[in-house]
């Protein structure tokens, strides 16, 4: 049986996979991003109130560059150093309004023709409940459009032709990668 977490009621509900496959995949990604009361209790061997679990989940979802690096490794991104450079560039090193208000690490627009985790559009870009949902959305984007990319050159070529609006985007990414030695993080 597959369940999805309903954020409004804060309960899990059964989902009919055949009718709601996109919602199921979204729900699975949300479950990966957050912890349930049962998981927290199992990990700590202690019972928690709903409010305490909410605080634990909020702490779990707090952003840090170290957590982002860990998530990029966990999700096995091709060229994670490029993805990290994109996040740094797109967010002004994690300080932009788009990041702080929309939890959008990659300047993503709301997808219309692929599965995504966006909650909608704000300021012309996708918004997410957590930064983790932004990472999952970029993972869906990558698996949809970048799965055939074999090397860094091709990755950069794709980004310059189909992703970036700034003609010097690739040069900026390469500069960030070199200046901050991002390859060493992976």
3D architecture notes:
This protein has helices at 21-33, 37-44, 50-61, 65-74, 80-90, 97-102, 131-145, 152-162, 169-179, and strands at 3-6, 11-14, 120-122, 125-127. It is mostly helical and 186 residues long. It folds into two domains: 3-60, no CATH class; 63-185, Lysozyme. Strands 1-2 form a two-stranded antiparallel ribbon. The protein has a two-stranded antiparallel ribbon with strand order 3-4. β1 (3-6) and β2 form a beta hairpin. Residues 17-33 have low confidence and may be disordered.
What topology emerges from the helices and strands here?
Elements: E1 3-6, E2 11-14, H1 21-33, H2 37-44, H3 50-61, H4 65-74, H5 80-90, H6 97-102, E3 120-122, E4 125-127, H7 131-145, H8 152-162, H9 169-179
Antiparallel strand pairs: 1-2, 3-4
Helix pairs in contact: 5-9
